[in-house]
Design goal:
With 410 residues, this protein is α/β, with parallel strands linked by helices. It is built from 14 helices and 17 strands. It has three domains: 155 residues, 3-Layer(aba) Sandwich (Rossmann fold), CATH 3.40.50; 157 residues, Dihydrodipicolinate Reductase, domain 2; 69 residues, ACT-like. Chain A, domain 2 (Alpha-Beta Plaits, 2-Layer Sandwich). The longest helix has 17 residues. Bound molecules: NADPH dihydro-nicotinamide-adenine-dinucleotide phosphate and L-homoserine. The site of NADPH dihydro-nicotinamide-adenine-dinucleotide phosphate has 26 residues, from helix 1. Pathway: Amino-acid biosynthesis; L-methionine biosynthesis via de novo pathway; L-homoserine from L-aspartate: step 3/3; Amino-acid biosynthesis; L-threonine biosynthesis; L-threonine from L-aspartate: step 3/5.
Length: 410
């Protein structure tokens, strides 16, 4: 029997207990041994809950119990999760986690500690909820040089944008709903300001490229500036708005970015709605691959965490290879990255389009019936730096949304 401990009995932690309970027989068969939850660490007690007799409040009980071989860290946050994880690994226990904040910040170091001790630090649930993406990057896409990862990597924001688009719901109302469903972070600012997606693209890029991508270096915008009027323009253009996180190779360097983007119906990410996530990967020999599934929530996330527990159980004294060195990858500035921009400006096309064309060249005008005193336009392909300069010179921009273009031939 393999004894495990779960740190944190919240949304994901209670899901882990439920998944192990529900699929006990098949999980044990796949792990090759019976998996038993011996302890659940939490700040609170859970009177009447089936795990109440397993609740402990002191991490040292878990640390000092030689029977515990695998620790599941699903508390969230950097501290004390970092200290607990490090101490568990140093004490010879493998660790599985859904904590992307911790993985993005200290993943390379914790992986190294695990490797040195023939243990595992696994984090399948840290990106894309229940979607298998970490394991494919580590062990399936190894023949390729990955030159692009683009993902809808946050379930909460995709849920919000979908409900705003399809049902005309208000931002605040849908965010509350996402929180009630257990999708959002404890501080939902991490979701809506794009920080969560930023950490996830940093993790995926670090694994794909084998070097440390610091999330602090990634240009990040969230969805808080997206309004019902922006969505009206998107519909007018036959497009939809998604929060995309991407890292991309240009010449010999990489840049990464998180921002809301307009995408069209021929884009494989167009139909990824609600809490679903999708990750599009391009490799130099593979071409395209896409991974799709539930991006957040109790059971999908717990499914990914428990898959890591099974992997740890199957590799109790052997480190599963992963390629993520602490050697930093310097990202290039986004200023030179090129794309089309959709821009909303104050004014009237009859009076103000000439000035727009003077600055931006031959633009395509977009108007929405009923939206007076403003109009929109799509620029040609220009760099971020050029856009910034021209927009400042124009001085009447209400909002700008980047346009994603799927490369020809894909
Ligand atoms: P919750 O807030 O629901 O659960 C965290 C639990 O850990 C709470 O019960 C909390 O107790 C407990 N806890 C916090 N600090 C400590 C501590 N120092 N000692 C003991 N217990 C502690 O969060 P989630 O389950 O939603 O998320 C957990 C992690 O998984 C986070 O890193 C999150 O980003 C990640 N994640 C979440 C997903 C989701 O869909 N929810 C999906 C993928 C990843 P208390 O409530 O009393 O503070
Ligand atoms: N808050 C996160 C999301 C949880 O909405 O995607 C899954 O990582």
């Amino acid at each position: 029997m393999i004894q495990i401990a779960v740190l944190g009995y919240g949304t994901v932690g209670s899901g882990v207990v439920e998944v192990i309970d529900t699929n006990h027989a098949s999980i044990n068969k796949k792990a090759g041994e019976e998996i038993n939850i011996k302890y659940v660490l939490d700040l609170r007690d859970f009177p009447g809950d089936k795990i109440q007799e397993k609740i402990v409040h002191d991490f040292n009980i878990i640390l000092e119990d030689p029977e515990i071989k695998i620790v599941v860290e699903v508390m969230g946050g950097v501290e004390p999760a970092y200290t607990f994880t490090k101490r568990a690994l140093l004490a010879g226990k493998s660790v599985c986690t859904s904590n992307k904040e911790l993985v993005a910040r200290h993943g390379a170091e914790l992986l190294e500690i695990a490797r040195e001790r023939n243990l595992n630090y696994l984090f399948e649930a840290s990106c894309g909820g229940g979607i298998p993406i970490i394991r494919p990057l580590n062990s399936s896409l190894t023949a390729d040089e990955i030159d692009e990862i683009t993902g809808i990597l946050n379930g909460t924001t995709n849920y919000i944008l979908t409900k705003m688009t399809e049902e005309g719901s208000s931002f605040e109302e849908v965010l509350k709903d996402a929180q009630e469903k257990g999708y959002a972070e404890r501080n939902p600012e991490a979701d809506v300001e794009g920080h969560d997606a930023c950490r996830k693209i940093a993790i995926l890029s670090s694994l794909a490229l084998g070097r440390q991508v610091d999330y602090e270096d990634i240009y990040t915008e969230g969805i808080t500036k997206i309004t019902a009027d922006d969505i009206k323009y998107a519909k007018e253009m036959g497009k939809t708005i998604k929060l995309l996180a991407f890292s991309r190779k240009v010449d010999d360097s990489f840049y990464a970015m998180v921002a809301p983007c307009l995408i069209g119906p021929t884009d494989p990410l167009y139909s990824v709605n609600g809490v679903f996530n999708a990750i599009f990967v391009h490799g130099n020999v593979l071409g395209d691959a896409m991974f799709y599934g539930s991006g957040a929530g109790k059971l999908p996330t717990a499914s990914a965490v428990v898959s890591d527990v099974v992997d740890c159980a199957k590799h109790l004294h052997r480190s599963i290879m992963s390629f993520w060195s602490s050697h930093k990858l310097e990202l290039t500035d986004i200023s030179n990255s090129r794309r089309r921009f959709f821009v909303r400006v104050k004014g009237d096309p009859a009076a103000d389009l000439a000035r727009v064309r003077e600055l931006f060249g031959d633009v395509e005008v977009v108007t929405v019936p009923g939206l007076d005193g403003e109009f929109g336009f799509k620029t040609g392909t220009i760099s971020e730096a050029e856009y910034k300069e021209k927009a400042a010179e124009l001085g009447t921009v209400i909002n700008m949304i980047r346009m994603r273009r799927v490369k020809a031939g894909r």
